[in-house]
Amino acid sequence: MGLHESNEINKTSLASLWLIPAIFIGVSVAIMLAGEAGKELLRYDRVWIGQGETWRLLSGHFAHLSWSHLGLNSVGLVLVWYLIGPNYDNRSWLPVTLVVIATIDSAFWFLHPELYWYVGMSGMLHGLLVAGIATRLRSLDLETGILLVLLVAKIGYEQFNGPVPGSETTSGGPVVVDAHLYGALGGALGALFTTIRAKSRASI
Q1: Around Cβ 92, how many Cβ atoms within 10 Å?
Q2: What is the extent of the structural domain holding 182?
Q3: In total, how many domains does the chain have?
Q4: What backbone phi and psi angles, to 5 degrees, belong to 115?
Q5: What pLDDT does 2 receive?
Q6: Looking at the DSSP assignment, which residues form a beta bridge with residue 118?
Q7: What's the pLDDT band for 11 if we cut at 50, 70, 90?
Q8: How far is it, in rounded angstroms, from Cα 75 to Cα 88?
Q9: pLDDT of res. 3
Q10: Rounded to whole angstroms, how far apart are CA atoms 134 and 87?
Q11: 45 forms bridges with which residues in the sheet?
Q12: Model's pTM, two decimal places?
């Protein structure tokens, strides 16, 4: 294999690795460009979901309060993906992401009937991070251990004290900290689902 072919393969691998975060950010930017009308149409909204607008269960995780909110989540997504993106291939990340989103939505719907609307990727980001960390638990290294401790500490802090100081100011509105907890639980479920599916395929 020549140097040119090797470089092409590396470029393809790099593009594949960052495909999912690029899509997530691109969709979120498109929703922001649609203005308030787009945000109103696509956010998680309990009343309209109850009337059949089920797409909001997915699209609400890509709508944002403001450009600063989107920027904060986008930086978070890039950082998370840099840390754990290679832990799954794209075919595995898709079901993991869907499990995370389904867990958050289910918890909101059944446990928080008082929550009428929600937007943002932060819950999903916590889930993706947990799913990525889960793949490293058998051979726990220092970096993974630090990530796990910091994540548990952050979620624990939020459950007892509310949003991390400055997060509401930066995002431009209220922070639903329970989304982070449910996202983390969804990430664990997504990792478990992926492991079971992989073992099932291997046994065939």
Answers
A1: 19
A2: 3-203
A3: 1
A4: -85, 105
A5: 45
A6: 44
A7: low
A8: 20
A9: 37
A10: 9
A11: 117
A12: 0.92
Residue with tokens 């990792």: 191
Taking Cα atoms as reference points, which of 183, 179, 175 lies closest to residue 65? 175
Indicate the burial class of 60 (C-beta count within 10 angstroms; 0-12, 13-18, 19 or more): buried
Which residue has 């990727």 as its token pair? 121
pLDDT in tens, 70-125: 999 999 999 999 999 999 999 999 999 999 999 999 999 999 999 999 999 999 99
- Please work out, in degrees rounded to the nearest 5, the angle formed at the alpha carbon of residue 194 by the alpha carbons of 193 and 199: 100
Tokens of 84: 């754990």
Nearest C-alpha neighbor of 87 from the set 128, 126, 143, 148: 128
Distance CA 68, CA 64 (A): 9
Beta bridge partners of 117: 45
Which residue is it, tokens 């797409």? 55
* pLDDT at residue 5 greater than cutoff 70: no
Identity (one letter) of the amino acid at 163? P
Could you tell me the CATH number of the domain that includes residue 109? Answer: 1.20.1540.10
